[in-house]
TrEMBL record:
<dbReference type="InterPro" id="IPR008979">
    <property type="entry name" value="Galactose-bd-like_sf"/>
</dbReference>
<dbReference type="InterPro" id="IPR039752">
    <property type="entry name" value="F-box_only"/>
</dbReference>
<dbReference type="InterPro" id="IPR001810">
    <property type="entry name" value="F-box_dom"/>
</dbReference>
<dbReference type="GO" id="GO:0019005">
    <property type="term" value="C:SCF ubiquitin ligase complex"/>
</dbReference>
<feature type="domain" description="FBA">
    <location>
        <begin position="100"/>
        <end position="281"/>
    </location>
</feature>
<dbReference type="GO" id="GO:0061630">
    <property type="term" value="F:ubiquitin protein ligase activity"/>
</dbReference>
<dbReference type="Pfam" id="PF04300">
    <property type="entry name" value="FBA"/>
</dbReference>
<dbReference type="GO" id="GO:0006516">
    <property type="term" value="P:glycoprotein catabolic process"/>
</dbReference>
<dbReference type="Pfam" id="PF12937">
    <property type="entry name" value="F-box-like"/>
</dbReference>
<dbReference type="GO" id="GO:0031146">
    <property type="term" value="P:SCF-dependent proteasomal ubiquitin-dependent protein catabolic process"/>
</dbReference>
<dbReference type="InterPro" id="IPR007397">
    <property type="entry name" value="F-box-assoc_dom"/>
</dbReference>
<dbReference type="InterPro" id="IPR036047">
    <property type="entry name" value="F-box-like_dom_sf"/>
</dbReference>
<protein>
    <submittedName>
        <fullName>F-box protein-like protein</fullName>
    </submittedName>
</protein>
<dbReference type="GO" id="GO:0005737">
    <property type="term" value="C:cytoplasm"/>
</dbReference>
<feature type="domain" description="F-box">
    <location>
        <begin position="20"/>
        <end position="68"/>
    </location>
</feature>
<dbReference type="GO" id="GO:0036503">
    <property type="term" value="P:ERAD pathway"/>
</dbReference>
Length: 281
């Protein structure tokens, strides 16, 4: 990572070079430490343009590994190996900077309003909009467990006809081209928490549509309060990790369906919360 700047004499370094400060040479390692605590977006928008020397430091991908550590953005050993093995250093730099600025939607929940705290904002209710509502806390079910690590007790609740809520994501609009997805092949983690009322049977289905260059794959998870291992009113986690998705992935659609199985008027159907769609890299 280092060079000989830290041991060069001040007269060897031009006045406008960022290695000098009040006639003193600032060691490269000290600059790295200082830069690692500057917001990533500021580094890219302004700091890198101060001088050629600073630009050279900030366009070396080893610095961005350090920056991620300071930001407490953990990379697995497998991910580090994958980045270090890339032939295109600029591509590795783009990925690391995208992670540091949180521009690339990796290792973060892409779903907006996952619990319904903002009502149905951000959700497209394509089927029976009037058959889905939001409760500020579960009615007829246990409280959402601490294990879910959710900031609120809000949840979506369904009725006697099947209803759905959907969010779609065009990956290219979020900095992930189909080519980059093929290169990174992040794991796609999806989940939601689900429960039934103690007095009414219900069911839920989670459908993930993965649109690739040549095909669209659908992954379905189903849950019913009639399942043998389900205790009424308790909360359960529906989750899966998808790795075998189509090449050239360009769009992901997350859809949650639900209804009650006794056709009672009102909102007695399945309750869901904590919707999650995450590209894990």
């Amino acid at each position: 990572m280092g060079n000989n700047t830290s041991i060069r004499e001040s007269e060897d370094i031009p006045e406008g070079n960022g290695a000098r400060f009040h006639e003193k040479i600032v060691p490269e390692e000290i600059l790295y430490i200082i830069f690692s605590f500057v917001p990533a977006r500021d580094l890219l928008r302004s700091v890198t343009y101060v001088c050629k020397y600073w630009h050279d430091l900030l366009t070396h991908f080893h610095f961005w590994f350090r920056k991620l550590e300071v930001e407490r953005i953990a990379l697995s050993d497998e991910t580090k190996e994958k980045l270090l093995s890339l032939d295109d250093e600029k591509r590795a730099l783009y990925i690391l900077q995208g992670l540091a600025t949180r521009y690339l939607p990796l290792n973060q929940n892409m779903i907006k309003n996952p619990c319904g705290a903002d009502g149905l904002k951000h959700w497209h209710c394509r089927r029976n909009r009037k058959m889905i509502a939001v409760e500020s806390e579960p009615v007829g079910s246990d409280p959402i467990p601490e294990e879910a690590k959710l900031p609120t007790q809000h949840c979506f609740v369904t009725s006697y006809q099947s209803s759905s809520r959907t969010q779609s994501f065009t990956l290219n609009e979020r900095g992930l081209s189909p080519e980059l997805m093929d290169l990174l092949r992040p794991k796609i983690y999806v989940c939601q928490w689900v429960s039934a009322r103690w007095d009414c049977r219900s069911e839920s289905e989670l459908v993930i549509a993965l649109c690739g260059a040549q095909e669209t794959k659908r992954v379905k998870l189903t849950w019913s309060s009639d399942d043998e291992d389900v205790v009424g009113s308790k909360w359960y986690k529906m989750e899966t990790t998808i790795t075998d998705y189509p090449a050239g992935l360009s769009e992901i659609t997350y859809s949650s369906f639900g209804k009650d199985l006794q056709y009672w008027a009102g909102f007695y159907g399945s309750k869901t919360t904590g919707s999650t769609l995450m590209l894990v890299f």
